[in-house]
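Human:
Class, as today's exercise, you are to examine the entry below, and be ready to discuss the fold:
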Amino acid sequence: MGRKRSRVRARDGERPPRARADDASRALLAALVLLVESIVDARASSGDWYTQATSPFGRARFLRLCRAGAMPAAKVGRTWLVRRADFDRFVEAHAE
């Protein structure tokens, strides 16, 4: 015979344990996203990196080149990062 599964029931006015665990997971994920974004912003603003917001090429062209793999880039969250030295080498190699 199979084992009976016990059910944990929520008290009156409380959410079930699974729903509370899902809420806690979402809150943790949101906090982690904010932490990673703040770290990326701090590193990107240090002057060693270009982002789509700080690129001299402009946002659209910078994103197009990063997505195409035309220059070495890393995507962290929703932000593309390119080392300033790599960007400068790319510009020098493609200067007309």
